[in-house]
Structures
1.
Amino acid sequence: MITCTKCGGKNSDDTRFCARCGNKLQSSRKAGPDAPPPEEPLEPFAHQGLSPDLLRALKRMAEAWVYLLLLGTVAAGCAFYEVWWPLYPAVALLGLLIRLRRI
Ligand SMILES: [Zn+2]
């Protein structure tokens, strides 16, 4: 709600001119010294000392490690049973996953 500085009429926030007197209205955000300062954009990870970019990189790295571990498990299973054919689709699937996830 914006109160007109000229006539005191009440106007909704999105109007630019007073409905009663036609006076140009000021946005409630720059309403004067009483108005609270504009809020700073939130930085969700600032308190942990990690930038979102770094966190994203770490997540991506962890994901890559999970895939590698999976591949290792498959390879170990193949070595144990001495069958090697499951390794090929596993590698192909992993390559596809990595390409899709852009790791
Ligand atoms: Zn007015």
2.
Amino acid sequence: MPTEMQIRSQLRHVGVSRLHRDHEGLVALIITFHSTVGDLFNRSPTAKDWSRIDSVLEDLSDYTFRHFQYEEQLMAKHGYPHLAEHREQHRQLVSQLEGFQDKMRRRDAKFSVDIDFFLLDWLFTHINRYDMKYKDFFEQKGVS
Ligand SMILES: [Fe+2]
Ligand SMILES: [Fe+2]
């Protein structure tokens, strides 16, 4: 299991401070999720564990929605040429997160390393691969 510092150090800076702060907020929620499920590998979750899981995933989904909306608005405002493609990436991420959330709501989960890495992978792949593509664009537009 990576430590909190190792997780944070994987996050690349996209050049726009408000967007980077959002990304840090998303990472913080995923770290909270981790610490919630971290000791469930060897025991069954209690009702209290489940309600914590539901609540952190709800926060994550609200935060994600607001972040994607803001990011897309900023792209639209400055005429980012890959907006449609990026929006489609966001749409897929939202549907993956909803699927994950549904699974948890059905209490259909075996806590394992896989579950731990799902959200990390979900977030970092997008930020480090797709969000990083707008870094130069916003820099040229003078948006920081
Ligand atoms: Fe994005
Ligand atoms: Fe983003």
